[in-house]
Amino acid sequence: MVISLILAVSAGIFAGSYSYAMADPTPRAVPIAVPEEPADGAPRVRAFLDALDRGLDSSIERRHVAGYQQAVDEIEDQSAFAVIRLGEGERLELDLAGAAGASVAEVLERAAPEAARSVGSEITVRDIKPLHPGDPRGLALFYMNLAVIVCGFLGAIQLGVHASRLRPWERIGVIACYSLLGGVCVVAAVDWLLGAVPLPFPQTWLILAGTMFTAGMVFTMFDTLFRRWALLPTWGLLMLLGNPSSGGAVSWPLLPSLFGTVGRWLPPGASVNAQHAAVYFPGHQHLQPYLVLAGWSALSLAVFLTGRRRRGR
């Protein structure tokens, strides 16, 4: 009876979590780079941004920069999702970055023409950093991340069932081995076989392997703490909270504030972030997602080894 109740409630929470995060993406704070304009052009750009802000019922975050190249650098650094400037003939130009966030780019592309018309301007919208043609919705990296997360902790579960006599470092070694192999298989399926996204092999492989290892160790940590109930906190952390807040299916500026804030500090969000930068912004990568994955792995290892030592195994 207890297990039936837990499963029923978990199903409702699972559906509710994903619906809350993904069913109706709503802009919260969308950073847009705004290069300096001549005195007579700045009011037109400002009026457009005000209209766009009203149309989206959100807060457009204006990142003022010295020139257009600096604005493009903001996109490359993943600090902005678009650039707005005054083009030739006083026509507005909105340069989007689909690779920075496909869902954000779609929202801006739909809202920009109406906002421009409301202030008596015309606008040209273009994507200066598009997604790969084989992945026009930008979901391939999200599915790659989902695959290694799920297989990572499922593998650890199976080790507990079928190889419970493994010593601590043997268990860790097996998780590391299947993680390295799993990363290769994911790259082979997505890039080499399907050609959905060209992946930088060494880095993508190691990110996937690190994510799979982290997921396996997170379950192992919870198994040390909660034993037969370990799947519940693992599922809650990685799937109910971590996966919908990862930014892979819906970009962080469109997620509910809680999800957008915590997502990048959980293994799924860190993995998507690292993978996204490696594929589309190789010259502007950040250390933070790697530290998050390393931190979760280190915490899980410490809890697991400490627990085993106390049990004398």
Keywords:
five-stranded mixed sheet; 11 helices; D-Maltodextrin-Binding Protein, domain 2; ABC transporter permease; single chain; 313 residues
Write the layout of secondary structure elements.
Elements: H1 2-22, E1 29-35, H2 42-56, E2 59-65, H3 68-76, E3 82-86, E4 92-96, H4 102-118, E5 123-127, H5 140-162, H6 168-193, H7 201-226, H8 231-242, H9 257-262, H10 267-280, H11 288-311
Parallel strand pairs: 1-2, 1-3, 4-5
Antiparallel strand pairs: 3-4
Helix pairs in contact: 2-4, 5-6, 5-7, 5-8, 5-10, 6-7, 7-8, 7-10, 7-11, 10-11
Helix % is: 55-70%
Tally of DSSP helical segments: 11
Strand content: 5-15%
What average pLDDT do the residues reach? Answer: 91
What Rg, in angstroms, do the CA atoms define?
A: 22 Å
Protein name: ABC transporter permease
Organism: Streptomyces sedi
Transmembrane segments: 140-161, 173-193, 205-222, 234-255, 290-307
Keywords: Membrane, Transmembrane, Transmembrane helix
